[in-house]
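We close this part of the discussion by returning to an individual protein. The encoding preserves chain order, so positions in sequence and tokens coincide. The sequence in question and its structure tokens are set out directly beneath this paragraph:

===
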Amino acid sequence: MSSDSEPSRLLLVDDSPIVAGIFEIAIAGHPLIELVGVASDGAQALPMVRSLKPDVVCMDLHMPGINGLKAVEQIMADHPCPIVVITGSQGVDLAHNRAAALLRGAVEFRIKPRGDEELRQLLDYLHLLSGVPVIYRRRPQVRSRSGDERIEPIQKVGPVPHRLAVVGIGASTGGPEALRETLVGIPATVPAAFVVVQHIAPGYTEEFAAWLDGLLSLQVVVARAASELKAGNVYVAPEDHHLRVDAFDRIMLDSHSAKCDGHRPSCTVLLESLAGRHGPTTGVVLTGMGRDGTKGLMAMREQGHPTLVQDAFTSRLDGMTRSARESGAASTVLPLDEMSTFLMKWFGSLGA
């Protein structure tokens, strides 16, 4: 694992000699990336990961033989490390492939860079990822809402007096999978609304919301300004907008305020807006890189709201979660597979 000042050891996996050549030229001029190997397909990449032990892998999606999805799954089972999947395709299968890559263990999925500036930004991001430990655990397959298998409520929920319950959730790298597992066991009849800030690559918010909507009983939408929160809905912050909830449980969007903790939307901005809420409210911080969400979660805890943080073992990247735990912002720390149960019990207690 490299430090911030040491070059990150990158393995590039791409069947295109042209793409490989472009990366090699760009990396030669980048002070923080060292290209330790180039594989032309997934089959060639697997032994190279074992022998070279790269800090980070940049993986093409479409390749002959073992494609990017299969290679990610095998690498993560054998030698877990940060993997970013890239593709030049922008067809109808883009959302499906992105979801498939993340569920198999990739930490990010992006369109191949178009131009020197996008390539430089990708290399900067690869270096940033290389310094973060990656934890991977295989997850069971989950059928969509339209499939034969139905998710049964974990616990019967009584009525919540007076006001809607609101759950604010912040997540970053590894968040899509964590959000799915946190929310998949919650029925659409739950008397709560969920407001989510998920750090995600530009251009993917709508696809992410549609993907998550297909897996949950809850309805998932991209948040719109002035919308009133409704039970059984999940509201995802739109790209480049802070999301706040006002005193009347309406959504406020802001694209002008400065980034907070390096992000817009910011988890802290959302959670701070919920801290002063008088109705039943809880905050959740899931896997991710950095510290976003810590200050917001602390504000919620100081106002007496329960605050929930994912544990280190189940966090894909234990950055945001570790920061929240070490700051004392978490009133409860749980593994990912217990999050849903905790929330359902909390909803049930509100009607007692």
